[in-house]
Amino acid sequence: MLNLWIGAAMMLSLNAGTNEDIRFDVNPSINNGEVVIDLKLENIGDETVNFDFHSSQKYEIEISDEAGNEIYTYSKGKSFLQVLQNLALTPGESKHWTEKWNFQKEGEELNPGTYKITAALTGRQLKEGAGPLTAQSQFTIAEKNAINVQTVGENGIYKVTGEVKDSAEDLYYTVEDGHHVYQKEQKVHIKDEQFEINIEIAESKLPNHATLMLNLYKKGEDEEISSTQPIVLERFNH
User: Fold this and answer.
1) What's residue 206's pLDDT?
2) What is the DSSP string of 70-125?
3) In angstroms, rounded to a whole number, what is the distance separating the alpha carbons of residues 122 and 85?
4) pLDDT, tens digit (0-9, with 9 covering 90-100), for 176-229
5) pLDDT at 91
6) What is the pTM of this model?
7) DSSP designation for 203
8) Distances (CA, A) of 198 to 161, 181, 214
9) What are residue 63's phi and psi, to 5 degrees?
10) Which residues, listed in sequence order, are joined to residue 73 by a DSSP beta bridge?
11) Cα torsion through 187, 191, 192, 198, rounded to 10
């Protein structure tokens, strides 16, 4: 079972694309071991704005590392209908799109670091002098709290084992699915830089359509949670 992790310490909107009467934003958020990429196209002017699209693809999304290397491209491996489509936005109206990505490149987890998201609208605004609309944002993946993490079990009974780099730092965990908390905060018992967490949840209380996650994290002197490392326990689709 693959463990996905991310430190969501920084998700910063760098800029939005604006053509006087239109605004295009990209905003990432972290949920259940995925980056959720929200796109918003908004008419901030006083007149209806029209866009022409030459295929069913409305936008392109690229994610790159700090060296500028491409990590993810939304359209890669996808097919789009070759049709002419029009999108009209009245004053104050907006259009939203959402995409998800699991932080993997060729089956491998991303290394700690800062990653840039660039989104571009593929449609052409039907107004003289209007240029292309692009927007950027970024997120940072922190160092892992634990390494060599292994998860075994199913149907509410799980064992999570792993190693820590610094046994002097306390670790804590909770278990949740993004909507409900199944295990309130517990301190991780660490011995010789090793730990083992055993979790039991009544089968009748397990979610139907959600991902059960163990969140491993540190706490500062002010009790503020930091460096959260989500670990997938089980995915439920029934």
Assistant:
1) 93
2) EEEETTTT-------EEEEE-TT-EEEEEEEE-SEETTEEPPSEEEEEEEEE-SEE
3) 11
4) 987 899 999 999 999 999 999 999 999 999 988 888 989 888 887 888 887 778
5) 95
6) 0.59
7) G
8) 9, 16, 11
9) -120, 130
10) 62
11) -80
CA 42 to chain centre: 23
Tokens of 98: 């959402």
Rounded CA-CA distance 43/23 in Å is: 6
Q: Taking all residues of the chain, what is their mean pLDDT, rounded to a whole number?
A: 84
Coil vs helix vs strand at 164:
strand
Q: What is the dihedral of CA 217, 222, 223, 228, to 10 degrees?
A: -20
pLDDT digits (tens, 9 = 90+) for 142-187: 677 788 888 999 999 999 999 987 766 889 999 998 789 999 999 9
The token pair at 142 is 């922190």
DSSP three-state, residue 129: coil
Q: Which candidate, 178, 186, 153, places its Cα nearest to that of 230?
A: 178
With CA atoms as reference, report the closest residue to 175 among 155, 140, 146, 200. 200
> What does the chain come to in residues?
238
Closest CA relative to residue 90, chosen from 159, 166, 164, 21:
21
Q: What is the pLDDT of residues 6-34, one digit of tens each?
A: 333 233 334 455 567 899 999 887 655 67
Helix (H) or strand (E) holding 165: none
- Judge contact between 211 and 235, C-beta under 8 A: yes
The SS3 of residue 41 is strand
Is 205 in a helix, a strand, or coil? helix
